[in-house]
Task: structure prediction
Amino acid sequence: MSDTAEPASRFRALHARERLFVMPNPWDAGTAMLLADFGFEALATSSAALAWSLGKPDAVGAVTREEAIAHAALLHRATGLPVNGDFESGYGATPQEVAETVRRAIDAGVAGCSIEDQDQSAGDGALYPLAEAARRFEAAREAVARSGSSFVLTGRCEAFFAKGVDPLKEAVRRLKLYDAAGADVVYAPGLTQEHEVAEIVGAVAVPVNVLGGLGGVSDDIPALERLGVRRVSIGSGLAKTALGAFLRAAGALADRRIDYAGAAASSTLNGAFARPRIDDDDDED
Result:
């Protein structure tokens, strides 16, 4: 347990301090190492960025549990940093399968994960009924408790992307439930207004994560810190930025032009990747 618990303990400690921390989302070992060089203290996977890197669409069940956990473990091995897994709805139809996802993530050395309440099998962005969402989250919480790990469990509500609900009211209702069920962090992606952030921060007793980059207050990290937000993640923002530059350059080539504006220097990339990888020391016993 000690080998896998240590990243989780460091991750948990980041949430215990008053200062907000930014948790960016790489999509492979190289981008994870580049982010580590900037001094970020933790990383997170992005289900969308992972899916796109595999040539798959996001949020339709195209990425497997095994792929998601292996990806999170890869980012940790590349950097030594705690990694939070974006594990969507837990990769299972039942609470027992959600619990198995959490158990496997802990065994793989992942520091934490989010379990969201969107029913991907419905295909329309619908949320699990409240009681079922609670059972799924409670199964994840029980798996963490039985492991004895410091694994950080985030209760995530997708109300801002669901149809037919008052998103803020529903998010507050569900995040309060996850808080009461033992969430270490709560998260409702889609917040862009100060009053939305303030209401959620005031409704729960645990740290709140906000998805940055959606406009409004979500783009103002100092303002989020003043509102009491403890953690900011970026989701697929960095991946979309990189892929946007790729598509622009590729489109120029298709038009028989060269446009490498903003390209990184080879010396910068080689310098970042020349440092020893964490697993280079595995054979030094």
Summary: Residues 130-147 form the longest helix (18 residues). The mean pLDDT is 95.
